[in-house]
Amino acid sequence: MLNTFQQVDHPILPKPTHDEGSRQEFTKSFKQFIQQGLLPGLGPVFGVRAAKAFEREHGRAPADRRDIRSAMVKDLYFQHYAAANRIAQELLWESTNVTIDRELPELIEKARGLSASAKGKLDLPEEFETPRYVTSIDIHCMPGGYAGAVAPDDISTGALYDRGVYLYAMGYMGPFNDDMGRSVCNYVNRRLDGFKPKRILDLGCTVGHSTLPYKELFPDAEVWGVDVAAPQVRYAHARAAGLGLEVNFAQMNAEETRFEAGSFDLIVSHILLHETSGKAMPKIFQECHRLLAPGGYMIHADLPPFDNMDPFTQFILDNETWYNNEPFWGAMRETDQVALAKAAGFPPESVKFDTAPMAIMEFVAQQAAGYSQDASAAVSDREFAAGEYAPGGGWEVLIARKA
């Protein structure tokens, strides 16, 4: 699919100059060249060259993604691909930070004004301990990580994330960066038999980009987004207000929130789990079970576990672990998430993996007018099969329902 989407402007989105915008567009195009021009060459390089070299050295064929990596890291083509990918990642943050550094005082003032006028709540405790698995590394090579702060009432990493995600995804997260939220909303619409949650919680919401579609789909629901990073939460609250949606945000840890037991009907997350840790994941599942009312759903959207992929695809995805500061990326995909959900108290028959087709692909396929939750009504009633818009046609969702 040719990406024609541009990011939709809103009051606190950084506003690049002509030259800054050109540099940012270059980083997006560079990433697209790597994905479409260099990545497809890895398969032939492995089959024709690297696998045979591995077999000559070891007397056997590569058996898993670790063997494949051992074979590929010695190949000049893969080295070129990996270096280009890392450079593109660093460039997208650097090109965006130039704009943010120039505008930061103005952005902070805008965010303060929007939050002051917002109907949604903003809960920022005076003392909060951000987990070490977030603070100890610049995840995605993002300067300062998720939680870095450089000024009072800082929103800089929120602004960086909002613009950076659009560039990183090459626009395929949609003009509001909300494709995951819209995709899960569409899944709820078509698969959960008239389910109408009254209270919804988005765990690890960052800038609330995936949170807002739930307020659009369920306008009468009370919607909360929580994250461990104060700059993200501040930005999310102001961003929602700037986009005209009443959504509540709070700085909380998904492992142990401050909400009462049984207080939510739907709990979701979007690419949260692979940025936690082996010790955090079971606690998050247990907290979801505690917070859900009877009959409520837990839905975590991410990429599939490794046991659903061939070894070469595992190797490709695991490059995020090795080259993009994602230490839990590979380990999370080897974790038995179904077993964790059962251990947290969810009935075994309620736990499953499924695919939520990407909303942006559906809109393009249906030639829908506009990109909004209203426009999705035309496509949310028909059935989709996993991989219909492959490759990259859907988000893997882990679903469980409290008894």
From TrEMBL:
As one GO molecular function, the record gives:
methyltransferase activity
The residue stretches assigned to a coiled coil in this entry are none
Residue span, Methyltransferase domain:
200-296
Q: Which domain of life is it from?
A: Bacteria
Give the PANTHER family listed for this entry: METHYLTRANSFERASE, UBIQUINONE BIOSYNTHESIS O-METHYLTRANSFERASE, MITOCHONDRIAL
Keyword check for Transferase: yes
Under what name is this protein listed? Class I SAM-dependent methyltransferase
Q: Which UniProt keywords apply?
A: Methyltransferase, S-adenosyl-L-methionine, Transferase
Where are the annotated segments for Disordered?
1-22
Instruction: List this protein's GO terms for biological process.
Output: methylation
Instruction: Please name the Pfam families in this protein's record.
Output: Methyltransf_25
Asked whether the keyword Calcium is assigned, the reply is no
